[in-house]
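Subject: sequence -> C-alpha cells, single chain

Hey, anyone have a minute? Need the predicted structure for the following. Not urgent.
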Amino acid sequence: MVPPAEIARRRLSRLTHHISTLPIVVLMPHSRCNCRCVMCDIWKANRAGQELSVEDLAPHVEALQRLHVRRVVLSGGEALMHPNLWALCALLKDLGVQITLLSTGLLLQRHAPGVVRWCDDVTVSLDGSRDVHDSIRNIPRAYDRLAAGVAALKALRPSMRITARCVLQRRNYLDLPNIVAAAHALGLDQISFLSADLSSTAFNRPTGWGEERVADVALDADEVAAFRGIVETTIQSARADFASGFIAEDPDKLRRLPRYYAAVNDDGDFPPVVCNAPWVSTVVEADGSVRPCFFHRTLGNIRERPLDQILNAPDAVAFRRRLDVRQDPICRRCVCTLQLGSRTPV
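Reply:
Had a minute. Here:
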C-alpha cells in the first residue's frame, strides 16, 4: 500500500508542478548495448560509450532522500555492461529503494549472483520465438542465452519476479501467439507489449528516423489489417493469460498497437495517451543528462546541479505546467507511457 503521506505528496506535485515526491528514477548506468536491434540505435554509440560512476551519484543521495524515491530502474543500453554496477546498487540500497533491472538477457547467466543479491526484479527484452528473437536482436543464440539467464536467476531465487517486454513491429507481429508461448516456456512471470518508437529523438537518434527507416520497422496498411486479426485471435486463444495478468495489457490495450500503426499510415488518430511520467519519474542518462521522460528535452545534468534542483528549476516547473499529454505532439505518438496513480504500488 502507498502511505497516505506519499499520496498527498503526489497530489501536491500534480497540482503545483513542483516535484514533492519522485517515486521512480530511471538510471542509464551505461550507454553501450550488446545487441544490434533493428528498432533501436543505442548500440550505434558503442564506440563513444559513457557511464555513471559512484562519484557521479553519491552527491545526489540527499536529493534522492528529499524526493522520497522508492524505485530505481536500471535501464540502458545494457546496464550489466557497467564495470562497477554493484557499487552503484550498494549506494542505492542504502537508501532503501527497490531496484529493477532492464536487460537484454545476454549477460544474466554470467551475473546471476549479483543480480539476485542487488536487484528486486528483472525485466528482459523478448522479441519472438527463438529464430525471430535472434534475427531482431542480430545476435547469435540470443534467445538461448536469455533462457539460460532466466534459468540461472530462478535457480538462485525461485521467487524472483522476471517479466518481459516485447516491441511488436514489422518483423515479429505475425509471431504474437508464439511470443506468448515463448514467455511461458522461459518461465517468465509476465509479458507486456508495446509498439516501436518511430518518431522521437530518443535512444541515440538525435535527428530522428527518415522515411526509409520508419518503413523498415512500421507496418503498412495490409500488415495493419493482418495485425488486427492476429490480435483478436490472440485475445481469444490467450483468455486465461489475460485473466491471470500474465499478459500485462488488457485486450483493449493490446488493440491499441495495430491502431498506432494505422495512425502512422494516416489512417485514423493515434490512441489517446494517459501519462503522468514527468510528475512521478525522471530519466538520468549515462552522461548525467536529466529528462522528464525518455522522449522530452533535457532539463539539466547531475554533474552540474543536485537532482532536485534540476527538477524544480523554474524552466522545469514551467515545462510541466505547460505540458498537455493529450495534445503535445511528442506525447501523442508516445509508445511507452506511465500512469502512476495514487493507489498504484511502486
